[in-house]
Design goal:
With about 350 residues, the protein is of the alpha+beta class. The chain has helices at about 5-10, 25-30, 40-60, 70-75, 80-90, 320-325, and strands spanning about 35, 65, 95-105, 115, 130-135, 145, 175, 185-190, 195, 205-215, 220, 225-230, 240, 270, 275-280, 285, 300-305, 310, 330, 335-340, 355. It is about 15% helix and about 25% strand. It starts with a helix and ends with a strand.
Length: about 350
Amino acid sequence: MSEPARESLLESRSTEPDGLDGLDLQRFEREGFLVLKGWLPPRVRQQLHAGWAWSAERRQARPDRFVDEVAPAFDELVTAPEMLEIPRTLLGPDVAIYFSRLMVKDEAWSGEVPPHQEAPYFHGGQRKLMVFVPLGPMHRANGGLYVVPGAHRYGALGRVNDHEIDLEAFPGCKKHFVDMQLGDVLVFDFLMWHGSDAAQRPAERPLFHVVYQPASDGSCYGDTPRLACGTWRTEHFLPFHFGVTERPAAGAASGVSDDHGLSAESLRKQLDPEKVVAETGHSFVIHLEDDLTSDAEGCSRVVLWEDNKPLPLAHVAHAEIRGEGAGRYSHWKDCLFFSSSDNSDPRTNGRLYSITLRETR
């Protein structure tokens, strides 16, 4: 789109009550976020509408808000000129993609996401941009996002309070709920405090999320760095959790390793059977709280145990878990799809299921 055409488009957009419209760099620095009303043209909106319909038809039962199968339209969106104009303006001409994902609140999951920063969950530099594209109406009633204007200026808070921020401790910090629809874009600073209330009326509220960063930052959530535009400005690349070894807390009893190269016994985390959900066939699924590289991004280090034995069939296709079971499992994004060794119900068979992390080699 030519510059005159872009200027005309910006002038024609309606302005929100707080005036957060257009790529206002000074306002972005001060408030930490921008709402870009009508930013995506009709052609892109149609592609996203069709892409969500494709993904919605293929989604499986899940215990959280993340959708596994994502239509090609979303992969194309992250490098579309209309989208890249945002990070190019705010970060510069050389831009990389940290990750993208598709989320939805619906009858399966419509809960609260407490106020938090994204920074403690991920790695690499903090000069990242969070960009959200609603695929339908997004507002407070259906559990839409809120931001806390200006909160990014407190800097990185780290892994405190289980990542949840106590807003009552900051009298000047208030939730700002963002009303949006298909065609709008929300962009905010990586350190911005944000969250969402539980949906008052659970209904389908899909949302696409992409994180951009300067191409001088070689961190990537998956195993393969991806350049969005311009030129790489680094020769050093670091996939999430690559080369990082989880160790027991100081003073913990030392564990043992065996021929499987399993991490220390003191790191074993028991799975709560009440949080396990029946999926399809022999497959059950549970949400993992930790942010770990999964089979979706490369090769998961998660090892699943049944009582005191590690189940040997990891990284298995979900269809095979559903159809054959027999202890097969897959750590996919932040979910663990698994089956018991004898295809009994892991919620009621009386066995203990737990996970450890396989040591890096």
